[in-house]
Amino acid sequence: MRQIMRQIVLLCSVCLYPFMLGAQNLGVIKLETPDKSGGRPVGKVFANRQSVREFATDKLKAKDLSTLLWMANGVNRADGRRTAPSAMNAQDVDIYVVMPEGAYLYDAKAHALNPVAAGNFRDAAGGGQGNINQAPVFLLLVSDLSRLTRGNTAPDEQTRLFGALDAGIIAQNINIACSGLGLATVTRTTMDKEALKKALNLKDTQLLLLNNPVGYPKK
Questions:
Q1: Of 159, 174, 158, nearest to 206 (Cα)?
Q2: How confident is the model over 51-72, as pLDDT tens digits?
Q3: What are the sequence ranges of the domains in the chain?
Q4: Alpha-carbon distance 39 to 210, whole Å?
Q5: What are the residues whose beta carbons fall under 8 Å from the beta carbon of 172, sequence distance 6 or more?
Q6: 213 - beta bridge partners?
Q7: Closest Cα to residue 17, out of 25, 29, 7?
Q8: Span 163-168, average pLDDT
Q9: How far apart, in whole angstroms, are the C-alpha atoms of residue 7 and residue 13?
Q10: Sign of torsion, CA 109 50 180 165?
Q11: Phi, psi (5° rounding) for residue 199?
């Protein structure tokens, strides 16, 4: 019996080894300094804003990704407050960045991407909607309702409304930033939430609310 158990453990270890190795290979990505003075004039940004569902497959330039994330919900003041407001300054919305090699969590304070899970989760983020999973990056907006309740009470309808509002503001930041940076995007609710919740190891209080695929316009 012990011999059989050892064989099972060995077999499981062999099967899981590639995934474990892949997770180890994902490291912290220290983002470049964002461009806080470039881009188009404000009027042109709003004039050119549109929802786009087809993307070039080119990888996003490091500077563009850095600037986009900072504009979305980065730190813009010495006291740690952000480019997007949030209810009670709870800063409940996290941005998960899904790329072909894996998923990362945006750390606004360090302006870095912390690895979450190795693997290509763009199909789950795309939710089977056309070829939208070809976008090189997905930004997933997740509201942790426990930050809004301070962990003292169970989330209610008002708490969920606050979370949705905060996510909506960040999504708008993403849309306006993409217009200014010459990127293509669209805000969506469609995605395989169960698959993503499992892949990202989300808690029950963390709600996947919106996602923005991002890339360069398809020519």
A1: 159
A2: 999 999 899 999 999 999 999 9
A3: 27-215
A4: 25
A5: 187
A6: 138
A7: 25
A8: 98
A9: 10
A10: negative
A11: -65, -40
